[in-house]
Amino acid sequence: MNNNEKVKFFADMEAFAQKVAQSEDSGVQMKLPLEDHQVININNYERYWDNSTPNGHQIRILKKDGSTLTINMEWPKGKNPRIKPYTNR
């Protein structure tokens, strides 16, 4: 995935999260799949870890062949929806 694709992917995920929040706020059940909803399928995964980072979250996935996939998710600059302060465990 090149940088432009990554930027679009994260912008799409943020837009999807906003739609989910609006749906929950309105009490209306959201219908899936949405036309702009994306699904990532990862075959042969063995284990995953999710961690908080100062600016978002990170998901690391271990695959059966020993390779790993890391997904870094960062909030937009100036936005931090964290309820409690970040502490590095």
Keyphrases for this structure?
single chain; 89 residues; alpha+beta; three-stranded antiparallel β-sheet; 1 helix; 3 strands; 27% helix
Query: Would you list the SSEs in sequence order as H and E?
Result: HEEE
Low-confidence stretches: none
Question: What's the overall geometry?
Answer: globular
Instruction: Report the sheet-strand fraction.
Output: 25-35%
Briefly note the structural class of the backbone: alpha+beta
Count of DSSP strands: 3
Arithmetic mean of pLDDT: 80
Q: Radius of gyration in whole Å, from Cα?
A: 15 Å
Number of helices: 1
- State the separation between the terminal residues, measured CA to CA: 30 Å
Strand order, sheet with most strands: 1-2-3
Helix content: 25-40%
